[in-house]
Design brief:
heterodimer, A: mainly alpha, 7 helices, disordered N terminus, B: 4-stranded mixed beta sheet, globular
């Protein structure tokens, strides 16, 4: 949002919020951007543009980020294979999961697990610092 | 000496709709509903029946307390759903979750066991979020602090 004059009205914001809440609730389900757009009552194209304008990232990036956050925690704590974790957090393709994971964390899931469980690894799960509602990326301001 | 908090502000998009939500849906009682002077500010307060000394005032951002630009920003933040407005206590989180869900309340989080109690998270009709917690007498450190650790 550049200024209040050009900001979407509260009705549009409400629909974006409903879509974002759906992703926060149902990240483990086979949810995709088209389904979320339909939930908000928009075509995919308009939904992606509006969501980015309101929350500062595309809905696809938001959903993937939330899923990767859960995957990071499962890799730290759960005795599951990378493939099992990939499916648990809502990805349908291991290739997409690994690519997204590396984009967001800078390492593969296997490397992440090795480091997270290695000696000297932090005992505080990273997700503790994230707001329950998903928060925002550090430095990734939604406004201005 | 300050003796207590007696009144807290809840920012809403529409006072009629918010009053109906907080009373008819959530089950709080109306404490005041009056208009100050001709065409003046409408003053609506609600509260829990068992807590007569704390009221919530349902306020729409705008004059006289807020300039139009600030009010527009505030309304956008409410509608975007980024504002949390408080934590309610309940004696039965699961039962309240079921009752309020059936009444159409949007829940962001289903009841989950946390170290401090059983907690769900819902939104009011404007978009602000609230915790709905059934507190434990003692901290249960075996419960996860959030839903990452499932």
């Amino acid at each position: 949002m550049e200024s209040t004059a050009s900001a979407p009205d509260t009705g549009v914001l409400r629909r974006m919020r409903v879509a974002r809440d759906a992703m926060d609730r149902e990240w483990a389900e086979p949810l995709d951007v088209a389904a979320v757009a339909a939930r908000a009552g928009y075509s995919r194209y308009h939904f992606v543009r509006l969501f980015h304008e309101v929350y500062g990232e595309t809905p696809g990036a938001y959903l993937a980020r939330r899923r990767i956050e859960r995957a990071q925690d499962l890799l730290r704590t759960a005795n599951l294979t990378v493939t099992e974790i990939c499916m648990l957090v809502g990805f349908t393709s291991l290739g997409t999961f690994c690519t997204r994971f590396k984009q967001l964390t800078g390492m593969t899931p296997t490397e992440f697990r090795r480091r997270a469980r290695g000696p000297g690894a932090s005992s505080i799960p990273g997700c503790f610092v994230l707001l329950w509602a998903g928060g925002f990326r550090k430095g990734g301001a939604a406004g201005g | 000496m300050i003796t207590k908090l007696g009144l807290a502000t809840v920012w809403v998009l529409d006072q009629d709709s918010a009053k109906a939500f907080f009373t008819d849906t959530l089950g709080l009682e109306v404490r005041d509903d009056m208009t100050l002077g001709d065409g003046g500010m409408r003053w609506v307060t609600v509260g829990a029946k068992d807590q007569p000394d704390l009221s919530l005032t349902l306020m729409v951002p705008g004059p006289p307390t807020m300039d139009p630009d600030s009010a527009a920003h505030m309304k956008a933040l409410i509608a975007k759903g980024v504002l949390g407005a408080g934590a309610f206590n309940t004696d039965d989180c699961q039962a309240e979750y079921e009752r309020l869900s059936a009444a159409g309340v949007e829940f962001v989080q289903r009841p989950e066991r946390r170290p401090y109690g059983i907690e769900a998270v819902f939104r009011d009709d404007s978009g602000c979020w609230y915790s709905l917690t059934q507190p434990f007498d003692e901290l249960d450190e075996s419960a996860p602090w959030n839903d990452c650790a499932t």
